[in-house]
Amino acid sequence: MTDISRRKLMATGSGLAIASALPKSASAATDVVPPVHHMVYFWLANPESTEDRDKLIAGLKSLAEIPEVQRLHVGVPASTLKRDVIDNSFHVSELMMFNSVEDQDVYQSHELHTKFVEECEGLWEKVVVHDSIMA
């Protein structure tokens, strides 16, 4: 092997090793984030019931099967620092991302979404929705 090709091999190998060692979030910056965000906060009718919470979470996760849903995050309140501006009184949250307002409209009338509402609406006493589009 010549000195030049050995250097090329080492340079290429070093670059690959460095890239593979980077955290996944370092490459996430190149991901295209869908511009329409659908944020929903649920307050359970029976907040002491982990069974109800888990059923709601499972129902929300099933909505990922709807083709227009590009990304889905289902969560519960984080134990972050207490500040006046933070409202963590909800029990379950959901964040969906869509490529367009039209896709979000299709999601609203999709059979899996209407089935979710029919099966789970008795689990919550309050729901708040915030829809936004990237500025």
Automatic annotation (TrEMBL):
UniProtKB keywords: Signal
Organism field: Halioxenophilus aromaticivorans
Stored SUPFAM superfamilies: Dimeric alpha+beta barrel
Record's signal peptide: 1-28
Record keyword Ligase present: no
Protein name: Dabb family protein
Keyword Lipid biosynthesis found: no
Domain Stress-response A/B barrel as annotated: residue spans: 36-132
Superkingdom in the source lineage: Bacteria
InterPro entries reported for this sequence: Dabb, Dimeric_a/b-barrel, TAT_signal
